[in-house]
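Technical annex, item 7. During the second reporting period the consortium partners agreed on a shared format for inverse folding records so that results from different sites could be compared directly. Each record opens with the tokenized structure and is followed by the designed sequence. A conforming record, contributed by the partner at site C, is shown below for reference.
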């Protein structure tokens, strides 16, 4: 809270309304073209009310970013019951996580536009995703398998995250693919090559 005041239920509703209207405006007009006066007008509150809860437009924008990151981190850091090491277990867990992430994005499209694509913090989100993916690879002891692809693991992971970002825009948000289908396609493309290679050799 920007300036000391005990927040009651009405105050919490006002703050939530400011966040909701700001999210709509930021998503439609962008950060720079959205003014505090636009936000308070849309929320039907006074400008002094805005400053009870936020120090600036920037602090409100950061609050929305944090909300996206919390949901994102909760999904990606959630521990799976899967304990068996190997590519099969890794692929199952990764598909589950990406599927849940895609569902979260579908349910929070405006928040995603800010948190994953437009804000400066979006770079941090994608960096965290690469770190979490690398952690999963080592947790399920798959590094040696990926090295057999004749590509640096860091390049594979960065490419995966880049493809994920692009497919969210071109397929997920355009509703060309269901979250489960897109998650499966993406994970299979990057992490089931040894199966394809094996089949080709057998033929």
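Designed sequence (site C submission):
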């Amino acid at each position: 809270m920007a300036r000391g005041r005990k927040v009651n239920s009405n105050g919490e509703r006002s703050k939530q309304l400011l966040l909701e209207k700001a999210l709509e405006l930021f998503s439609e007009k962008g950060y720079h073209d959205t003014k505090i006066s636009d936000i308070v007008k849309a929320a039907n509150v006074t400008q002094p009310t805005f400053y009870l809860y936020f120090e600036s437009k920037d602090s409100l924008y950061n609050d929305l970013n944090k909300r996206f990151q919390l949901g994102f981190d909760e999904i990606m850091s959630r521990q799976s019951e899967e304990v068996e090491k190997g590519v099969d277990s890794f692929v199952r867990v990764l598909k589950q996580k990406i599927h849940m992430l895609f569902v979260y994005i579908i349910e929070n499209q405006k928040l995603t536009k800010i948190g994953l694509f437009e804000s400066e913090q979006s770079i941090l989100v994608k960096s965290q995703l690469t770190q979490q993916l690398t952690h999963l690879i080592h947790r399920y002891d798959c590094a040696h398998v990926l090295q057999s692809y004749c590509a640096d693991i860091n390049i594979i992971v960065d490419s995966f995250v880049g493809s994920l970002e692009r497919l969210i825009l071109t397929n997920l948000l355009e509703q060309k693919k269901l979250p489960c289908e897109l998650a499966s396609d993406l994970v299979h493309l990057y992490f089931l090559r040894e199966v394809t290679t094996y089949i080709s050799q057998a033929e």
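Residues 9-29 form the longest helix (21 residues). The CA atoms of residues 106 and 175 lie 9 Å apart. All partners now use this format for quarterly exchanges.
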